[in-house]
Design brief:
The complex is a heterodimer of chains A (135) and B (176). Chain A has 5 helices and no strands. Chain B has 6 helices and 7 strands, in the order H-H-E-E-E-H-E-H-E-H-E-E-H. The chains are: A mainly alpha (135), B alpha/beta (176).
Chain lengths: 135, 176
Amino acid sequence: MKRLVVIAFVLLAGFVVGASYAQDPQPRPSEAEVEQRAREIGRGLRCVMCKNESIEESPSTTAQDMRRIVRQRVRNGETDAEIMDYMQSRYGDFILLKPPVQANTYLLWGLPFMLLILALLWFWRAARKYTDDRP
Amino acid sequence: MRGLIPLFGFAALLAVLALSILRGNSDQLSYKFLNEPFPEFELTELYDEARTIDQNMVGGEITLVNIFGTWCTPCKAEHPKLVEISNNENLRLIGLNWRDPRTRAKNWLAQLGDPYDFVIYDRLGELVIAMGATGAPETYVIDRQGVIRYKHVGMVTDQIWTETLQPFIRELEREE
């Protein structure tokens, strides 16, 4: 009976250990992977001190700390979107070098297309006038 | 006259963009935590490594939170003003020491005077980034509920204190 209990206990322990390994969906990323992903994320985040540089390019102290935090979060298994969301929750849309398409950026995103359409209309009218005026 | 239409259009576009840029540059308008509770954190005190400090210790009374570092020249320049405020006002001042070795920060405060009720030690900028700060020095006014009510970027000068921060704090005192 005692042997049976011991065997059952060993089997159960093995099952628990196996299950805990099975629940770990991703192995920890290597430092090279962390670095590569962190650089990609960092290139999309604006340095809040230098405005026109990403945190990967900026030498400022704030950018250095942001780079460290991005790397730490990559190591902790967060997705790119989760890390971007975290930074956005701290600094707002300003931190994103590529502004999202939303109500307050419609003009920003739409203006080049509007200008292109206006230029094409102008060109079409000028071309028509030119052909109509030809003898 | 018709030939001037594109010029007017261009001028209107420039005006819209200039206005957006001027509005967007305001620290108050763009600050994410304005009128929001102080962000969650857990760090240690500068002088007492065993003492943990969190966001609950920031509220309770009207408070100034000042980000500083010994490496930051404007922080040194504004420091006498903070010491003066601490001596003359019944106001809690919390320091947030950023990117310093403990000993250096402690020596700096021993040399220049310590205006703070306590100092949060943020060696790696965890809280600085969590609260959406852009650099040092920065000073935040926190109300009794622990809500960030004002953010000042740069030095606290005589003028900033008498014309902006002090009136704002007086207003908060009347409000609460």
